[in-house]
């Protein structure tokens, strides 16, 4: 079996090498092969003989890519977003498709938290006094809301699709299977919050499009003291309208991980951002590797074989695997804890200094290792200290 995978999928060799050796080629005796490719440059000729294709978000999977291939049976994307995949075409060709819902949702939530901690320090504000407006109450929005709840920070969620589901059914399960009894608010409420964090897929058309959800009209209603964070898809904010707003002197503080037209970026917008990064919010090692693991599990299921490996077989220990805390929780401790694991200023500095040297895609390809909070075990030295670190996602000593 020939498995082609994006070179930017951690542990792909570890997960998929053995599956290639399964003798399921079309002629029954085909040599197994595991082939890495560069996601943006992939051609139809390259994948003409693939049985399995494993991509990331920068590869458009459509008729143009697969028209020369008559035997492919499985396409996987090690990502949450699926806007790069023509699902209708795959269905028409009876090709199984799997993405990796939720794989890097914790990573995105920790990116947003790191941005908030950095801005709170830069502008000396009390995080617990803020209300965060979350647009999109799916995996990433929910992981963020859980961390905010752990910190006692108020939040509101706008998600008309989940709100409708909730109204139609007496019980709606959230992404983790629990009953959804959240109160949803309209977009206008969320856009009035101190912090606005966007967590929607790219959707063009339909009842609830997200393409340019933030546009000249509603951006103009923002207050100077608000923070706008986007770590979902570049097209959700009209970048030219945002630039015009900032050029006109608007004070909204902007954190952008995603950009319209990636890998090309509206260069003049960068200097108006507080934090700017190269679409790496989901790039914790765990987040990316979970994507590989989820596709491995899905492919094993398709091949009707039990999965032999899991992520914990391959994840290395963190560089600071354990710490002890000898004081009760406060914002200074939060700042130290979050930045110890992930300081978003590192990625912001790399972006500003290296974007025009390395290019957007290379910044992502050469992304330094970043771990999630769970890679660090926190021991509280007194049982009177509040348990916030563990509720934030740090591991407990068991
Ligand atoms: N920057 C990065 O590295 C990453 C970006 N993403 C992006 O974030 C998006 C969201 O990820 P998840 O939360 O995991 O997806 P999800 O599918 O779990 O949740 C998305 C939620 O958005 C809601 N939604 C859709 N249209 C909406 C609208 N017009 N207004 C309000 N809510 C709306 C949906 O009902 C759904 O609950 C992904 O589709 C992907 O594009 C995801 C992971 C990493
Ligand atoms: O999962 C998603 O959706 C994302 O946005 C990923 O973080 C994108 O990573 P790449 O697939 O572009 O490496």
UniProtKB/TrEMBL annotation:
**Record-annotated D-isomer specific 2-hydroxyacid dehydrogenase NAD-binding domain positions:** 124-281
Q: Which reaction does it catalyse?
A: 4-phospho-D-erythronate + NAD(+) = (R)-3-hydroxy-2-oxo-4-phosphooxybutanoate + NADH + H(+)
Which example biological process does GO assign this protein? 'de novo' pyridoxal 5'-phosphate biosynthetic process
Q: Where does substrate bind?
A: 57, 79, 283
List ligand-binding residues for NAD(+).
Answer: 159, 257, 282
InterPro entries hit by this protein: D-isomer_2_OHA_DH_cat_dom, D-isomer_DH_NAD-bd, Erythronate-4-P_DHase, Erythronate-4-P_DHase_dimer, NAD(P)-bd_dom_sf, PdxB_dimer_sf
Q: Where in the cell is it found?
A: Cytoplasm
Catalytic site positions = 233, 262, 279
Q: What is its EC number?
A: 1.1.1.290
Q: What does this protein do?
A: Catalyzes the oxidation of erythronate-4-phosphate to 3-hydroxy-2-oxo-4-phosphonooxybutanoate.
Provenance organism: Colwellia ponticola
From which domain of life does this come? Answer: Bacteria
Q: How does it assemble?
A: Homodimer.
Q: Name one GO cellular component term.
A: cytosol
Query: What is a single molecular function from GO for this protein?
Result: NAD binding
Q: What protein does this entry describe?
A: Erythronate-4-phosphate dehydrogenase
Family matches, as CDD domains:
ErythrP_dh
The text of the family note is:
Belongs to the D-isomer specific 2-hydroxyacid dehydrogenase family. PdxB subfamily.
Q: Name one Pfam family in it.
A: DUF3410
For the protein in the UniProt heading, the enzyme class is oxidoreductase
* Keyword set, alphabetical order: Cytoplasm, NAD, Oxidoreductase, Pyridoxine biosynthesis
Domain D-isomer specific 2-hydroxyacid dehydrogenase catalytic residue range list: 24-288
